[in-house]
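Hey L., structure's done. Input below.
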Amino acid sequence: MPHPTDVHVGHRLREVRIMRGLTQTQLGERLGISFQQVQKYEKGTNRIGSSRLWDMCGILDVSVSFFFEGLSEDTSEDEKISRRALQLAKELDRIADDDVKTNFLHLLKVYNTG
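Output:
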């Protein structure tokens, strides 16, 4: 059974990998490992060693602390970010006009409240 910390770090790896627009294969190639190994890291089945984590930080342009943010919180399955939500956030971030971003978020809130 994977340790909860390894699962959390793996989920954070998946989130940032998707946000950066990388496949598991692409990340694996940059790290010199197979996509299956990336899958195991993302599921928390295999632990990520410190040197590997450091390499990931350089490739994904995040700090080491990124992987541990929210670890002490009790995150339910409902609060985990879906692939579609990550892709939406990535596309929204590409919009240069802050007013357009704000209006889009307002539209989503109005739609979801009824």
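The two ends are 42 Å apart (CA to CA). The chain has six helices and no strands.

-- N.
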